Amino acid sequence: MSMVPVLIAGGGPVGLATAVELAHHGVRSLVVEPRETVSWLRPRAKTTSARSMELLRRWGLAETLRARAPLAVSWSDEAVFVTSLLGREITRIGGCFGLDLVGSDLAAEPGQQAPQPLVEEILREAVGDALLTGWQVAGLREDAEGVTVRIVSGDGEEREVRAGYVVGCDGPRSVTRAAIGARYEGRQDARPNFNIVFRAPGLAERMPHGPAVHYWVLNPAQPGLVGRLDLKDTWWCIAQGVRAEDADPVRLAHNIAGAEIDVEILATDPWTARMLLADRYASERVFLAGDAAHQNPPYGGHGFNTGIGDAVNIGWKLAAVINGWAPAALTATYEAERRPIAADTIEAAAANMATLAPELADPGLMGDEAEFEKVRPAVAEAVLRTKHSEFHSLDLVLGYTYAGSPIVADGAGERLPHRWLAPGESLYDRLGRGFSVVGDRRAPGVAALIEEARELGVPLQVVDLPGEPLTLVRPDQHVAWRGEDPAGALRRALAHA
C-alpha cells in the first residue's frame, strides 16, 4: 500500500490549488482525478478574482496566467446591457470584478478574466507528478493514525492508498462528504439555465458595443448573457429560463446575437443554480473544500474563488502540522474560519441572482426608436440599482475577515492591508512562506516573537518597516495579531493549548 502525507480527492481548480499550497510549504500530496485531460468545451468559471490572483502571485503563477489568458486584463472592465449583440445599448457598468485594480494600493493583483480550463491547466503543470489522472476516490476509512483511501481506475482496477490526511475537493457528489457524515443544507433555484459554447466567425467585427466582460441581453423573447472566450470567434452564452428539453442551441445563439449569424455549436450544458452549504466541513483527518463544501450561483464570479480560499486555509494549516511546527488542533480551526465565508458568499450570490436578465427585460426595448427611448431610462436605472453589487464586491473578495476565530487576536483577522513598496514590489512579496512580523524591527516585540518562533520551530520572516507598529501575519496573508506586546501571540495563532 502506498503512503502519502495528504491525499486530495478531485483535481479541479480547488484540489489542484490545495496541492500547490502544500508544495509551497514542502509537503507532498497525491491528487486523484478521474479526468485525463481538461476540456475547453466546459469553460465554467471565467473570473479569477483579485484575491485569487494575489494567491497565484504568492505561488509564482499570476504572470503565467495573465500571459496565457485569451483576454488581457486591459481588454475591458465593463458589463454592457443590450437588446442583442447586434442591437441597441441600454447602459453599462464599469470597474467590474476588480479588473480595474492595476497598480492600485488596494491589491497586489487585479482580477483576471480567464476560463477555468486555463486555470486548471496551469495548476496541473505546477502540481506535476503529484496528479494521478484516470482514477477517482471511491471510499475511505479513517482511524486515529490516518486514512485508508480506496481509489478506482476508469477500467475498474482498485487500489488502496494510506494518507495522513484527506482533503475532499470532489464536487457536489462528494464521496468524502458522505464518508464523514456531512450533508448539504440549502435550496435550489427553480429557474433553468442553458449554457452554450459556440463559434461565430465575424460576429465580433459586426458588434457596435465594443469590448466587454459580459453582454447582458435584455430581450424578453430570449434573455441571457454572453461573452467572448477569446479574441477569435469563440463565445460563451447563458440562456436564462430555458429548459434542456426545449433548447434549440442555434436558435438561442441567433436570438442572443439578434440576427441569423453563421454559428457552430461546440458544447451545451443545462444547469440550475444551487445555494448549498455542508453542515460540517471536517472530521479529525478529512476536510471538505470547494464544491464539496459549498455551492453558490455564479453571479458575482465567486464560485471557484471561494474554493481557492479554502485550499490556502487548510493547506497551510496541514503543512504546519505535518512539518511539526503546529499541533493537530490547528486543523480544527479550518471549519470555524471558512464556513462563515462560504455562507456570506452564498447569500451575496443569491442576492445577485434575485434580478437577472428576464426581470430586467422590457418589451418596449424591442420596439421602434421612440418606444426604446421611452423605456430605456427606467431599465437603465433598474440595472444600475440592482446589479451594482454583483460587479463591485471587493468588500467580500478582499475584505473578508477571520475575526472571532480562536487563533486570531482581538482586533485582527483581516487580510494584511496591501501597499506598494516600490514600483512592482508589493508588501506581500516580502512576506515569508511561514509567519511574518511586519513593522519596525527595532521594536522590543520583534525579539520576543523571534525567540518564541525559535522555541516552537516556526519559520518567521521579519519585514522591516521603520516606524511602523508590529503586525504578525499568517502564511495566508491574514493578520493574526497586532500591537506592542506579542506575548503568546504566535502560540495562539497556531492553536497551542
TrEMBL record:
Matching InterPro entries: FAD-bd, FAD/NAD-bd_sf, RIFMO-like
Name of protein: FAD-binding domain-containing protein
Entry keyword set: FAD, Flavoprotein
Top-level taxon of origin: Bacteria
Organism in which the protein naturally occurs: Nonomuraea turkmeniaca
SUPFAM superfamilies attached to this UniProt entry: FAD/NAD(P)-binding domain
NCBIfam families: PRK06126.1
Record GO terms (molecular function): FAD binding; oxidoreductase activity, acting on paired donors, with incorporation or reduction of molecular oxygen, NAD(P)H as one donor, and incorporation of one atom of oxygen
Keyword Flavoprotein: yes
Domain FAD-binding: from-to ranges: 4-348
Pfam families: FAD_binding_3, Rng_hyd_C
Entry cofactors: FAD
